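[User] Could I get a sequence and structure tokens?

[Assistant]
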Amino acid sequence: MAGHSKWNNIKRRKGAQDAKRGKIFMRHAKDIYNAAKQGGGDISMNAALRLAVDKAKADNMPNDNIERNIKKATGSLDGKNYEEITYEGYGPGGVAIIVQTLTDNKNRTAGEVRHAFSKNGGNLGENGSVSFMFDRKGIVIIANENGELDEDEITLEALEAGADDIIVHEDAFEIITSPDNFSDVVAYFTESAYEISDSELTLIPQNYSPVSEEDAEKLEQLIDMLEDSEDVQEVYHNLDESNEG
């Protein structure tokens, strides 16, 4: 399971995205939006949002950007009606893909998503065509780069906080929660002064699809093209990244 872990995906994704400042802000914007959408826009009452905002400010994201994404999530931005639309389909090699978007122009968003799939060897499907292959979970990453944290202690605290499972990595602990317990687990570890490297509600594949090196490259191009759209909030897939090719 560790080979398919969210932590490995996060590290790879951040390594690619951090090459551009705009990508950094995009990632923070998504985290802020998701946290506010799930737990409300009051930072004092939403530990996940507070963490997302703190990380954004640490990377010098402007306050206006932060406030705009909170307002988008709570439906109070400029009087516009933002709609969440999810697209499902298959990428190169039969990899299942879910694209979550937030838009005030459905036609624009649909066109961009459809173009990204068709240009990179993918096919859009009907709603429900791949979502049954994923489980919704909360993920909380506790950094352990110096190996100073005790595995047994973290495991016990995670269970006490309400987590479902924990994956141990060389440099981090990946704590998995139900969506309902996510905010409580984030609040628990925040208040306990642990360094939370990342936290999010996400979709975790039930099974993973290995593909050829060529298809993996095409899939990466498809995902990059989708993530370049400002309407796209998140892209999920079930590529087996531990055994490509």
